[in-house]
Amino acid sequence: MKTLEIPVVKLPKETEELRREIRQFLKEEIENGLIETKCDCWLSGFSEDFSRKMGARGWIGMTWPKKYGGGERSSVERYVVTEEMLAAGAPVSGHWIADRQTGPLLLKYGTEEQKQFFLPRIAKGECYFAIGLSEPNAGSDLAALQARAVKVDKGWILNGSKIWTSGAHHAHYSIVLCRTTPMDPNNRHAGMSQLIVDLNAPGVTIRPIHLMTGEHHFNEVFFEDVFVPDGMVVGTLGNGWAQGMAELAYERSGPERILSTFPLLNELTNVLIEKCDAKGLNEVSRLISRLWTLRNMSLGIARLLEEGVPSNIIASLVKDMGTQFEQEIPEITRLLVSVIPLTDSENRLERFLAQSILQSPGFTLRGGTTEILRGIVAKGVINQ
Ligand SMILES: Cc1cc2nc3c(=O)[nH]c(=O)nc-3n(C[C@H](O)[C@H](O)[C@H](O)COP(=O)(O)OP(=O)(O)OC[C@H]3O[C@@H](n4cnc5c(N)ncnc54)[C@H](O)[C@@H]3O)c2cc1C
What sequence ranges are listed for the domain Acyl-CoA dehydrogenase/oxidase N-terminal (predicted)? Predict the structure, then answer.
């Protein structure tokens, strides 16, 4: 059996200055009433203005080459930006997916035209992407997907549908995984390709899926005879499965798999300190120690990804442990303080608790369920 090794990353001194700059910016945005702290902000906090401001400050596409609008900064600096945004519960969902995984995907597999067209727009915080993987009958068993594209002159005609597509109603494009040759039952992963689909193209319909609260952040997306030009194929035709799987390490290991309910943990700590509640603070200190360990693991994976080391197995492990951690925060809060969760409460603890309770069931589903992740880790550790 193989052991999993994650490097220890020490944050360099320069990141302290960057962190101060981000905190000052966020403080001003909050004090001026321009943004509001929210739990699970990377999926449900949206502001076009805020995304543009982040782009203008060079905080999107930070590690990408300058010639594509990036900042050529380190993955650790990018990590500092993302964790500060999550800790403040800032409205980052617009650009999150494009920054986290579409950019790296295009840098690795995209054509020169795709890089020149999309990357600078993403880095400016003006171009958003959605993830087009899940279908009504293909979630954990993604290889069952049926969306298909058929070759025509100068492009492809796409038919099919996707579901649970976060942010599709705000996004300009989606990377759609579909079949470009019919399914081979003996090799279901073969013949898939990734297409960049313009979500405003004729034949695309986006229907909201509302949460019980009436909130809307994911969707059903239908493709009826949508024309996708040849230039919008990502990487190699038929290699979509392998390309898509490489994206998942970026998707699963970041601080958003640990910090979705951090604003609640922070507020809980403040309340317990104010009440001099030693027993409660003892519980919180256990949470903070776990958070510290998870964060170090996640930082280590950011370094591995920067070095091009395949990290899917450890990323799955961190996602499993991290999402359970963020789910436990509202549960522990309910045991420690007597408050009534209310989404529109003036009281921050009540509001953050309500947001966390409502969003947390999805944490261990989105990006791969707990059971699937554990299967990946078990098989990876035994087979290697
Ligand atoms: C908030 C949220 C946002 C999302 N955003 C997106 C998005 O932007 N784009 C996108 O493409 N998808 C998105 N998803 C979809 C997500 O990826 C799927 O929900 C997930 O992959 C599970 O698929 P499913 O819902 O079809 O459940 P199923 O696959 O039907 O699973 C149901 C249950 O059965 C278990 N199970 C299934 N197969 C096995 C197995 N082999 N062994 C053991 N247990 C198993 C699962 O663990 C789960 O508990 C989102 C989901 C959520 C909750």
Answer: 13-126
Residue closest by Cα to atom 27 of ligand 1: 139
Closest residue CA from atom 48 of ligand 1: 369
Question: Which residues in the chain are classed under CATH 1.10.540.10?
Answer: 14-127
Interval between CA 142 and ligand 1 midpoint (Å)? 9
184 three-state secondary structure = strand
Tell which atom from ligand 1 comes closest to the C-alpha of 131.
Answer: 9
Domain 254-383 architecture = Up-down Bundle (1.20)
Q: How does pLDDT run across 253-264, given as a tens digit for each residue?
A: 899 999 999 999
131-238: CATH, from 2.40.50.100, 1.10.8.60, 2.40.110.10, 2.60.15.10: 2.40.110.10
Coil, helix or strand at residue 304: helix
Mutate to test the pocket of ligand 1, among 257, 323, 365 (most ligand atoms within 8 A of CB): 365
Q: How far is the CA of 362 from the centre of ligand 1 (A)?
A: 9
Give pLDDT tens digits for 83-103: 999 999 999 999 999 999 999
* Ligand 1, residues at Cβ distance < 6 Å: 130-131, 133-134, 139-140, 164-166, 218, 362, 365-366, 368-369, 371-372
pLDDT tens track for 32-69: 999 999 999 999 999 999 999 999 999 999 999 999 99
Distance from chain centroid for Cα 299: 15
Q: Report the nearest atom of ligand 1 relative to the CA of 137.
A: 26
CATH topology of domain 14-127: Butyryl-Coa Dehydrogenase, subunit A; domain 1 (1.10.540)
Report the C-alpha gap between 62 and 374 in whole angstroms: 32
- Within the chain, all domains assigned CATH 1.20.140.10 are found at 254-383
Q: How many CA atoms does the CB half-sphere of 205 hold within 13 Å?
A: 9
Q: Name, in order, each residue with C-beta under 8 angstroms of 221's C-beta and a sequence gap of 6 or more.
A: 130, 132, 161, 162, 163, 165, 168, 174, 199, 204, 205, 206, 207
